[in-house]
UniProtKB/TrEMBL annotation:
PANTHER family: APOPTOSIS-INDUCING FACTOR 1 (PTHR43557), RIESKE DOMAIN-CONTAINING PROTEIN-RELATED (PTHR43557:SF2). Residues 15-319 form the FAD/NAD(P)-binding domain. The keyword Iron does not apply. The lineage of its organism: Bacteria, Bacillati, Actinomycetota, Actinomycetes, Micrococcales. Keywords: FAD, Flavoprotein, Oxidoreductase. The keyword Transmembrane helix does not apply. It comes from Sinomonas cellulolyticus. Its cofactor is FAD. This is FAD-dependent oxidoreductase. Residues 338-423 form the Reductase C-terminal domain. It comes from the Bacteria.
Length: 434
């Protein structure tokens, strides 16, 4: 195999970005916008052009959008911007010099010398450790190959068991139900979306999905996946119940891809540890997106608090911070982290980060189908989960951006049709409307 056939390069690229997805793509785009002139190589292990993941559990799975709509940028765009796309190369080792340059070595043996390095390696699906987990028909949903495999099976399946009541599980279960499948969702914990939302929101989603006919079972204890001729036939629970399934879709969270960082000797702790400018512990490599553990980017959050976020918005904003760092500038994370999840007809938007909250206020307008939970820490609003309530979402996001509060007492007293933005006050003048 020649160097050009396996994608490897002899001359060092200006920046090698390992991981060609949301963060890597944004990093390349932001660097070009900032005037970075050196060649960029955007390299990934997947054998697809860089694509967006969110629709894989939603519109794409349901057949509402096609493959092409997931692709980030055209081949012409990358050519015009002097970004070389390398597919199907898994980097297994990086040798790095103190000045930031080095060489990345792929499993194929191809070598990719670089002047600077970015790790945008994301996360992978956590695997289920249970008898029968290797049977055909037991699938995950992290990447395009997973999604293509799932879609290829869906036509012949009547019964699907989804394991995991997080965002991916709920989105996929809703999609599969809409596609006419008998879907049972099994959650090990005592409530849904355990990690990402508070109790009120979890309860709301449980009721809302059940009201829409989804068979959701909490505290489900899976004994094993049953099979015949190597293919899954069902899920057996510890109480002896057997749920028929031709597809078992497992969505039990992700594990950040930190192996390369560990091999390079970078600090790792639930992700690649970076400073507020996306720089890893060697001071030259940037690490961005789902793979990175960073200081909480919300202004005013406690010193030393760290977080690893798994969202499109974070991948984009974090990549912008890293692009500045690679240009020799030190800029803070702009904006407030936010997230969305579409499940059946329910559109959840989350503004801010609810970690460390000590008070919640629920705002509910059943007539108009709106539901919001505002999270407070020490009297200050820090986040909101908003279902079909985009004005509440925008009000909290704007208040956080502007350093304002929306006092809990005012929200509690307000009628459901009062707009939250009219209750916002400057933090240092809590009784003066902003
Ligand atoms: C089904 C699904 C639905 C989602 N829905 C939403 C949503 O509604 N809203 C939202 O905000 N977020 C959503 N997300 C999350 C969002 O897609 C991720 O947060 C985002 O993709 C993170 O981007 P990233 O580039 O940091 O990591 P990733 O997207 O994980 O990309 C990392 C890339 O690096 C590659 N890679 C890893 N190691 C190597 C290596 N050694 N060599 C070469 N390549 C390597 C991987 O193959 C991968 O292509 C969803 C995710 C999934 C899977």
């Amino acid at each position: 195999m020649t160097a050009s056939e396996n994608g490897s390069e002899n001359a060092p690229t200006g920046l090698l970005i390992i991981g060609a997805s949301q963060s890597g793509v944004q990093l390349a785009i932001s660097l070009r916008a900032l005037g970075f002139e050196e060649p960029i190589t955007l390299l990934g292990e997947e054998n697809h052009r860089p694509y967006q993941r969110p629709a894989l559990s939603k519109e794409w799975l349901q057949g509402e959008v096609g493959n092409e709509s997931l692709i980030f940028r055209s081949a012409e765009y990358w050519d015009e911007h002097n970004v070389t796309i390398v597919k199907d190369q898994r980097i297994v080792r990086v040798e790095k010099n103190p000045d930031g340059s080095g060489v990345a070595v792929a499993a194929s043996g191809a070598e990719f010398p670089f002047k600077r390095l970015a790790l945008t390696v994301g996360a992978r699906a956590r695997k289920m450790a249970v008898d029968g987990a290797d049977l055909a028909g037991v699938v995950y949903l992290r990447n395009a190959d997973d999604a293509l495999a799932l879609k290829a099976m869906v036509g012949d399946a009547t019964d699907v068991v989804v394991v995991g009541g997080g965002f991916i599980g709920l989105e996929a279960a809703s999609s599969l139900k809409k596609m006419g499948k008998n879907v049972v969702l099994l959650e090990h914990g005592s409530r849904l979306v355990g990690r990402a939302v508070g109790e009120e929101t979890a309860e709301f989603f449980l009721d809302a999905h059940r009201a829409r006919g989804l068979d959701l079972r909490l505290q489900a204890r899976i004994a094993r996946f049953t099979g015949s001729d190597g293919a899954v036939t069902g899920v057996e629970l510890e109480d002896g119940t057997v749920l028929p399934a031709q597809i078992v879709l497992v969505g039990i969270g992700v594990i950040p891809n930190t192996e390369l960082a560990e091999q390079m000797g970078l600090a790792v702790d639930n992700g690649i540890v970076v400073d507020s400018h996306a720089l890893a512990s060697d001071g030259t490599t940037v690490a961005v997106g789902d793979c990175a553990n960073m200081p909480n980017p919300v202004p005013g959050s406690p010193a030393g608090e760290r977080i690893r976020l798994e969202s499109v918005n974070n991948a984009i904003e974090h990549a912008k911070v890293a692009a500045y760092s690679l240009m020799g500038r030190r800029e803070d994370y702009a904006g407030i982290p936010w997230f969305w999840s579409n499940q059946a007809d329910l559109k959840l938007q989350i503004a801010g980060l609810s970690m460390g909250f000590d008070e919640t206020v629920v705002r509910r307008d059943d007539e108009r189908g709106k539901f919001s939970v505002l999270y407070y820490r020490d009297g200050q609003v820090i986040a909101a989960d908003c279902v079909d309530a985009p004005l509440d979402f925008m009000a909290v996001k704007n208040a956080l951006t502007k350093g304002q509060n929306i006092p809990a007492a005012a929200v509690r007293d307000a009628a459901p049709d009062v707009q939250l933005k009219t209750l916002a006050v400057q933090r240092d003048a809590q009784d003066v409307p902003a």
